[in-house]
Amino acid sequence: MSPRVHPGFLYEFILHPAGEILFSKRITELEPSATIALGNLVKKLEREGTKILSFTLGEPDFTTPTHIIEATKAALDKGDTHYTPSEGNMDLRQAVAERVRSRNSLKAQPENVIILPTKLAIYMAVQALVDDGDEVIFPDPGWVSYGPMVQLSGGRPVPVPMVNMDGWKWELSDIEAAITKRTKVLIMNTPSNPTGSIVDRKEQEGLARLARDHDIRIISDEIYENLIYGETHHSIGSLPAAEDRTITVSGFSKSYAMTGWRVGWMIADPDTIKMVNKLQQHTLTCLPGFVQKGALAGLKGGDSSIEEMKREFRARRDMIIPLLNEIDTISCEVPKGAFYAFFRMDNGKSSLENAELLLKHAHVALTPGSAFGKAGEGYLRMSYAASREDLEAGAAAIASHVSSHQ
Ligand code: GLU
Questions:
Q1: Are 197 and 139 in contact (CB under 8 A)?
Q2: Which end of the chain has fewer CB atoms at under 10 Å, N or C?
Q3: Phi, psi for residue 288 in degrees, rounded to 5
Q4: Strand pairing class (168-169; 163-164)
Q5: Is the CB of residue 151 less than 8 Å from the CB of residue 292?
């Protein structure tokens, strides 16, 4: 894969500079994560004194609920600073199993659960399933790290475009056309980052049939499961056709405003959990015990904080989408879930150029749609997990940039 050529200053943050022979081919060919790299860039610009309205990282602006913080502090005070079992504390695995049984209708017992950061759960699932040259299908536009995780595992990324016709859809016929003898895994994501679209139960039944007929494993990324506005979340792993072959990942980051805690879970059959646990033992070892105690308090503490944050995200969505649609050249569907406005900007420029111009001239940081795949070209992602004031100011700055650069 040769580096794409772009002269702008975002280049070094989003795309990798020319390869160095000092490093492995594997890591040299890997592009940085656009979301994380842009988050770093914004922090750097702010350290240097430039005020940026940042809507790059998908990170709730709320503080973690107090009862979670208190439980963590109490664990630290009690000296919970040692290793835990690599698969996670039994009380937390039990609580996660209970939660996914009741919420997601997954048939989970503690032996079906391993505690780890959600991002690592996806990576380790891919590592555990993929041999050199195996193909992994995932949505385009889709989260920036699916492709790189497949590359790192020696697999071949197969992004399958979604189509946008009054909302993004992943067509079964397009997925079927992409399946070959080497297809090993299909990664699905509902609600979707970056589009906010949902894979509903009927669509999941189609995917499950396809996976069964072609003997493909499914990794279901459900990290935004609690952030759905109006519709109900459904987990593909609860379908009889998919239950044996699905690895479900989710966690605390987005639902409980716990991005910095790095805690989540994987649900799978016990053999998969054992394989992933080997990876955990040779890499992370375990998650900190005090973090697991905080997470447990989150699960035991009821859902009022989730509901409150969700109400606020919904209000922000309902405020920002009309503001964006008022701007010339911009069009944006109402996302059904997550907290991203994925909008089209039809001004003849690439999404990277638009992101760069907006950062330079309007001091508004957005993620270019091309970072999420070829089908994301022409779009920009604005995270509305930001304050209403910042969202309003961001929309105004974009509008004024657009009108002065026609
Ligand atoms: N998933 C979030 C995002 O897309 C956080 C950053 C990341 O892990 O990519 O912005």
A1: no
A2: C
A3: -55, 140
A4: antiparallel
A5: no
Do 271 and 332 lie in one domain? The reply is no
Backbone angles phi, psi at 218, to 5 degrees: -115, 130
| Interval 145-194: pLDDT, tens | 999 999 999 999 999 999 998 889 999 999 999 999 999 999 999 999 99
Task: Report if residue 212 sits inside a domain.
Answer: yes
Using a 6 Å cutoff on CB, does residue 119 contact ligand 1? yes
Which atom of ligand 1 is nearest to 56's Cα?
10
pLDDT in tens, 351-368: 999 999 999 899 999 999
pLDDT digits (tens, 9 = 90+) for 258-290: 999 999 999 999 999 999 999 999 999 999 999
Q: Is residue 24 part of a domain?
A: no
* Final residue in a domain of this structure, among 231, 266, 300: 300
CATH number at residue 204: 3.40.640.10
Q: Which structural domain, as residue segments, surrounds residue 113?
A: 66-300
Put the strands of the sheet holding 367-368 in their side by side order.
Answer: 330-331, 340-345, 379-383, 367-368
Residue 38's H or E segment, with its range, is helix 34-47
Instruction: Tell me, yes or no, whether 176 and 313 share the same domain.
Output: no
At 171, the amino acid letter reads E
Q: How far is the CA of 304 from the centre of ligand 1 (A)?
A: 25
CA distance 131 to 185: 11
pTM of the model: 0.94
Q: For residue 387, what is the domain's CATH number?
A: 3.90.1150.10
Same domain flag for 219 and 271:
yes
Q: Is residue 136 domain-shared with residue 243, that is, in the same domain?
A: yes
Q: Which of 35, 254, 261, 372 to mutate to test the pocket of ligand 1 (most atoms within 8 A of CB)?
A: 35
Last residue of a domain, one of 267, 300, 333: 300
Cα separations in angstroms, 159 against 16, 135, 172, 271: 20, 10, 14, 28
